[in-house]
Amino acid sequence: MAMDGSLSWVPHGMDNSSATRIDVRVCAYAEVGDDGAQNWHSTRNELKVLDRDCVNFKDFSEALDQEIKHGLNQKLLITFWDKISNSFAEINHDTSLLTTIDMYWDERRLPIMATYGYWFTPGLVISIDAGKGIDAAVTQVFTNGVEHRECMRHLVKNFMKKIRGDVLLKHLWPACRAYRILRFEQHYNPMLEACPEAIQWLEDNHKHLWKRYQFSEISKVDYVTNNIAESFNSWIRTEKSFPVIPLFDRIRQLIMEKMDLRRRLSYKLCGKILPRVLKDVNAKSRGLPYAHTFSNRDQDNSPLLAEVQGVDKDLQLWRHTLDLTNRTCTCRQWQVTSLPCYHAVHVITSMRNPKMEDYIDDYYSVHKFKKAYENWVGPMTDRNQWPKVDLGFKLWPPILKRAAGRPRTRRYKGWEGGKTRRTVTCKRCHQKGHLKKTCNETVLDPNAPPPAPPKPKRVRNRSKKKAIEVQTKATQVEAPPSAHVEATTPSKASTPTTDISSPMTRSRQRQLDLDSAAIHGMCTPTKQLAFSVDSNSPVTRSRKKQLDLDAAMCKASKVAAKPKAMKKTARKLEVKKPRN
Questions:
Q1: Of 530, 516, 525, 524, which Cα lies nearest the Cα of 557?
Q2: How far is it, in rounded angstroms, from Cα 14 to Cα 21?
Q3: C-alpha span between 297 and 300 (Å, rounded)
Q4: Terminal-residue alpha carbon distance, the chain
Q5: Among 278, 374, 488, 502, which residue's beta carbon has the most beta carbons within 10 A?
Q6: pLDDT at residue 522 in the model
Q7: What is the 3-state secondary structure (H, E, C) of 501-557?
Q8: What pLDDT score does 144 carry?
Q9: Could you give the CA distance from residue 64 to residue 23 in angstroms, rounded to a whole number?
Q10: Confidence (pLDDT) at 116
Q11: Rounded to whole angstroms, how far apart are CA atoms 143 and 375?
């Protein structure tokens, strides 16, 4: 070792002026064997001393690769923290290695990170929400064989903050959902002509995959949004305010319960394909206005190649070709999702005794479902029973000043949020005012979902009132021809005649009472209202007052009907007058 105390780490025989230390942090990884078995290795640190004047990347990487156990298909990835760009960068040749050593020459200690790109399953897809911190970290760690996608909803949110327009809003989402590049260009070119600056900003700031036609066919996922992460965020919405350790412990409990629920559910499943997947595929076969022609059949008369044609919403003829053996369609939806598209479903259902399970990928099988949830999350004790570890230091929480008022629990909504009501747009026919699940409009687009099923008629159990033939005293008593009854009130004069054959209701009973009162000459409004009162109701003060008034009016009407009696009464009054 060197005699200098400050450079005691330099090996004997190495020049002190060119020696440098390299701290290698080997991240946790899974060693994948030839048979697919995985052996987990934890994180560890190693210290190496190199001579800057004679080091080269090939010898350094090979020596490091031999010390670390890994599979044949796993590749070593060496990264470091770039002080200039404030991000992780890869070391892959001699120039980058020497540049990195010079960057950390003042400390004479270069921290690097060694990882293996294929410790994960091939076909892994990572979808982010345009967060800059997580974007830089995930892009550096997951490099080889990983498909990095970006949530389209967050992309549109950031895009509309900068640039807005009807053309962009109309074509941006259809361009994202297009499975074929020709379909993508039909929506992309109008946006490029309308605003080239907007498209240039989109390509410069959003470099991850957001176009569906660029998705690989290995992952079997065609999601363009990050709704799975949003669902998980909503799943733990009440626990997000917990400290870190209680939060992780609660997430562990939730995952443990979910794994147990799915595992018990898998015991009840039978068949080849999941029932939910079969139900969704069979739902596509309803009301498809397509025509097909078979091109090739095997010895059992089973179709192998076919053509499907139809007319789109612009009355333009289209045609797609199918290969039922390789499960491919020129619309490319079958290859990306591994589920039969509308064209394939139309051809399969036209065959004799079709088996839809034979045309769905094993990814959606019951066996895969049981395999995914065959393991379980073990139980844990509470925090007080965990082993105590002496870290050599005390980590105190940060000193924070408590804000005034009650702590806020609701999130701050973005610019697109608000209380204003907006008109919904149907995703099937693209018309305003209704949703896709209730849409019954005629759509000629071949990729459009089927119309909504008709709503079942509601059976109302209303008890019908039976018609009762009632002959009241008012209908039996007829006024004499010489008698003439005047309707002294406008309400009585405008009262229509009621049909006797109609059922007895409260309004009809009231009308019959009024008619009976009119026949007997009691045509005043007070008398008409008196007859409408039910005789079985209790006698209250107001009702007793009304009955007394009716009796007085009835007596006065009888006296008015007898003119002779009035003359006699007048004579008596004249006789009784006092004389002067």
A1: 524
A2: 12
A3: 8
A4: 161
A5: 278
A6: 52
A7: CCCCCHHHHHHHHHHHHHHCCCCCHHHHHHHCCCCCCCCCHHHHHHHHHHHHHHHHH
A8: 64
A9: 12
A10: 67
A11: 28
- pLDDT tens-place string over residues 211-248: 999 998 888 889 999 888 889 988 998 888 898 999 99
**Tokens (6 digits) for 470:** 């009632």
**Exposure string (b/e) for 285-315, b if CB count within 10 Å is 16 or more?**
beebebebebeeeeeeeebebbbbebeeeee
- Per the structure block, which two tokens stand in for 529? 């209202």
**Predicted pLDDT of residue 566:** 54
Contacts of 523 (CB under 8 A, 6+ apart): 485, 486, 487, 488, 489, 492, 517
All residue ranges of the chain with pLDDT < 70 are 1-6, 30, 32-38, 70-74, 116-122, 143-145, 299-301, 413-421, 444, 446, 459-503, 517-538, 559-580
- How high is the pLDDT of residue 73? 61
Who's near 140: CB < 8 A, 6+ residues apart?
A: 79, 87, 88, 89, 90
Give the model's pLDDT for residue 252. Answer: 94
pLDDT score at 37: 67
Alpha helices for 385-450 (secondary structure H): none
| Chain Cα centroid distance, residue 226 | 11
pLDDT at residue 158, as a whole number = 85
User: Are 203 and 184 in contact, with CB atoms under 8 Å apart?
Assistant: no
Sign of CA dihedral 431, 433, 436, 438: negative
Q: What is the DSSP string of 141-167?
A: HS-TT-EEEE-HHHHHHHHHHH---HH
Q: Provide the 3-class DSSP secondary structure of residue 79.
A: strand
Q: Which residue has 């660029």 as its token pair?
A: 214
CB burial readout 95-134, b (16+ within 10 A) else e: eebbebbeebeeebebebbbbbbbbbeeeebbbbbbeeee
Residues 138 and 131: their CA atoms lie apart, in Å, by 11
The type of residue at 507 is: S
Compute and round to an integer the Cα radius of gyration of the chain. 44
Token pair 């066919």 is at which residue? 217
> In angstroms, rounded to a whole number, what is the distance separating the alpha carbons of residues 153 and 464?
54
Residues 122 and 36: beta-carbon distance below 8 Å: no
- Across-strand partners of 31? 39
Using alpha carbons, list the distances in angstroms from residue 253 to 85, 234, 238, 263, 336.
Answer: 40, 16, 14, 15, 34
| Residue 87 phi, psi dihedral angles, 5° rounding | -155, 165
Q: Side chain identity at 66, as an amino acid letter?
A: Q
The tokens describing 471, both together, are 């002959």
Cα–Cα distance list, 393 to 45, 243, 388, 398, 459 (Å):
21, 20, 13, 15, 74
In terms of Cα–Cα distance, which of 373, 343, 366, 218 is closest to 278? 366
Q: Model confidence over 432-476: pLDDT tens digits? A: 888 888 888 877 676 777 777 777 777 666 554 444 444 444 344
Which residues are 306's β-sheet partners? 294, 322
Place of tokens 């200690």: 109
